[in-house]
């Protein structure tokens, strides 16, 4: 028995004993008469409308004190009052809270296990003292269902409303109907619905408003899904999203501000605004064929593809709708490592999917026809890279499903409707199975001759590891430390000096005409060179070693290249000695992130690391293509040689250690 109910019985039996031992009472009848007089008062103290403390529970007392301390600091424009469901804004609902309510100076007054009587006590004992919020959101009563009738619960909610109006006369109160509980419709739900309707009578349309968002949590048959309430009572992140989006129009009205649009979780950006196809493009061939096109050929083909896209894809009722004809829909931007959230719906016997970095695919299809379910990496072939999902987690045809897809490197993890269906599996390169999946590429919503719909398409780019720590920095001297002084002291050029500049602590070149190799003023024979670099899409640059006065003659170039051509020979990719020695392992070439080089020349041996990948390890004397390489020369940086798109290259943290 809990402490609250123990206290209740202790008070009752204490009263009984006092009544029965009153010596001045004239017999048992008088004692019973006394008991009859005090007994209703004992039970009334525990009614839904009389304040009851839980300060005997240590955690509750501590939270009460913490809430009071927060309220005393002021700056409270919005309060949420309730039980564990409201307290859950600090748990599974935190991301949603941070988007909708933290910027509005909101305070969470939810206490796990509370009933209406406990809320009344808290309101009388500091929870709302000294503040005048613009609005209060009240959702309470579910914990009263066992011991109280619908009428009693409704009266308890009404008492809280009256208390709020008395103590916060300028605060508008939004009363929410008690949320449905239990997997399926039941008498308990009916009781809570009736209680809510009683409380709703307090709404006056001015300072008190009533809103029933309960149906938003229910399936068509009235059932509650575990992806919204895993225990059929408390909410998941998705459940809190539903709550926030459902009350936002009314709450914004009460706060006197514009409603926030339904948006992505923190850290994510929307790929679809619900209105048009901005940020999307039509499909041009496959990655292999696109890579062989000239920029002019690609632009012409893209124009035709975009026209075809607009004929078959459209924004409809806040969703991307496909008519079953035409080609796949592609993001205008390429992505490397990312997390994708997307809702989708497909028709009977439908078959579709989502391409990652331009390669198939996370499968979507009708589970009635394909009982293994959606989410698998359908085009994988190797046994160690399973193609089938771990389970079928699809909803019935006609209902919306939700993917959470995470891709890091070659590996993909997929949750479907909050169920893990693919666990860190390598996505094979469908277009060339001898090579790994491309480091970057577009996300594609696949055409497969079946109508389908997508909505709530959000992506979060995941940073890749750059700026690798190669070891001790002892003995290294800076060649560029982020200052204009270090550039002037250590570097020169035979070309256009204005092609190179210091910007925000970075050494940058923008492909200015006449700008080519920037070289050190000092020559180096044996050395270790470390630096970090970044290029955009189509970026092309390099690092010269043992070069002459022009920065490169007599020496060789360590290539820097964005992966605009995934089939470019290993002789020319990042980390290669351009045109002379191919990489032994191809490194990551993702554009717009920082990468690291460590280049070592020691006794004729050249070793090159790009990030943590050893690309080159050769002895120049034993390598025919390097037989004429100078044994000493300048270190140099190549200007931007990009032939399409943005034209820039950035360097930072350039340092060198001479080996003697």
A few lines on this structure:
With 660 residues, the protein is α+β, with helices and mostly antiparallel strands. 23% of the residues lie in helices and 28% in strands.
List the helices and strands and how they pair.
Layout: H1 3-20, H2 28-44, H3 58-72, E1 78-82, H4 84-87, H5 94-100, E2 106-110, H6 116-124, E3 135-139, H7 150-167, E4 172-176, H8 187-200, E5 208-211, H9 237-255, E6 269-270, E7 280-282, H10 287-291, H11 295-312, E8 313-316, E9 319-322, E10 329-335, E11 338-346, E12 351-356, E13 359-365, E14 401-408, E15 411-416, E16 419-426, E17 441-445, E18 452-461, E19 477-480, H12 484-490, E20 491-493, E21 500-503, E22 506-509, E23 517-524, E24 527-534, E25 540-547, E26 556-561, E27 595-602, E28 605-610, E29 613-619, E30 633-638, E31 649-658
Parallel strand pairs: 1-2, 1-3, 3-4, 4-5
Antiparallel strand pairs: 6-18, 7-10, 8-9, 9-18, 10-17, 11-14, 11-18, 12-13, 12-17, 14-15, 15-16, 19-31, 20-23, 21-22, 22-31, 23-30, 24-27, 24-31, 25-26, 25-30, 27-28, 28-29
Helix pairs in contact: 1-2, 5-9, 6-7, 7-8
Oligomer: single chain
Task: Tell me the domain tally.
Answer: 4
Low-confidence stretches: 1-45
Structural class: alpha+beta
The global form is elongated
Largest sheet: 8 strands, antiparallel
Question: What is the class of the largest domain in the CATH system?
Answer: Alpha Beta
Question: Might you state the CATH topology name of the largest domain?
Answer: Rossmann fold
Number of strands: 31
Provide the CATH architecture of the largest domain.
3-Layer(aba) Sandwich
Residues in β-strands, percent: 25-35%
Radius of gyration: 34 Å
User: How much helical structure, as a percent, in the residues?
Assistant: 10-25%
CATH superfamily of the largest domain: SGNH hydrolase
Provide a count of the helices: 12
State the distance separating the first and last CA atoms.
81 Å
Provide the residue-averaged pLDDT. 87
